[in-house]
Protein: Tripartite tricarboxylate transporter substrate binding protein
Organism: Paenibacillus piri
Amino acid sequence: MIFTIAALTACGGKAATDKSSASASKKVDFPKKAVTLIVPYAAGGGTDSTARALAKAAEKHLGQAVTVVNKTGGGGSVGMTEGANSKPDGYTVTMATVELTTLPHLGLSPITYENFKPVALVNYDPAAITVRADSQWKTMKEFLDYAKAHPGELKLGNSGTGAIWHLGAVTLEKGAGVKFNHIPFEGAGPAITALLGGHVDAVPVSAAEVKAQVDTGKLRALAINDSKPSAALPGVKTLKEETGLTVEVPGTWRGIAVPKDTPDEIVSILTDAFTKGASDQEFKDYMGKNGLGIEIKDAKSFGQHLKNNHDQFGKLIPELGLGKK
């Protein structure tokens, strides 16, 4: 399938009908071959599975194959750097994640969102404060009240110092006026295992990551740290609904981006294909089955989202003493 974008201009009056009239036509013959989608994390994870499902969904709208390639290392920095430095012709796109807006402030990435042009946001997953099902805290209010009365006592397991769920927990901590004891692990999985084993009191990881244990009755989600409930955990109220607090707690997200010098006409074609792919029922069914949220933003809205996240973490990370030395 060939996409053509044409811009036509013509002089007014009689000259407009003349063969020598001023008219121009700009065409973009794209895509003519397969598109490579760089995933900056290992196969089998949430970013990889989302990317593969999205690639399959977008192919029918692009008319060409979308091939997923995993480029791991540096907490996502290696793959995103390679994507930013690839040829700006639209044939290499990158699955950008929230770490694009955190790693630069941590001194762990040479690039920022400004090295890319946004194409589309397709996923967003909020944090869910989760405890064991047999814990003493039945509500988020009880949990925060206990934290206020016992500063620094509650142990919150996270996915690593400076990782998104650590930063999200600190944002909640500051907004609620409490103090947690943050315990880092090598990913959300080990943090959840520690919670199940009674080694930490709670985890502030994504709703999708605790869904299975909540569904089987091993864990209890106290609140969704977002402005709206999560489809992954139906019936679990938001932080504001539970406590009245309005705290902008960051969550994780995934989207498509291309090198900053990619022509706008090509970006437009990619945006159309990936947003349509993310809207396909098959993709929605896959994401729903796996507890992953869908949030679709076009290039312009995704660009603003990137800036907002970059600015937010630019203030938060230095406050944690985790910024560039």
